[in-house]
Amino acid sequence: MANRPGVGDPAPGFVLPGTPGGRLYSLDGERGHPAVLVFYPADNTPVCTLQLRHYSADLDQFAGLGASILALSPQDVASHERFAAGNDLTIPLLADLDKAVGRAYGIVGPLGYYKRSVFVVDAEGTIRYLHRSTQGLTYRRTDELVAAVRTAL
Question: How do the domains of the chain map onto residue ranges?
Answer without folding.
Answer: 32-152
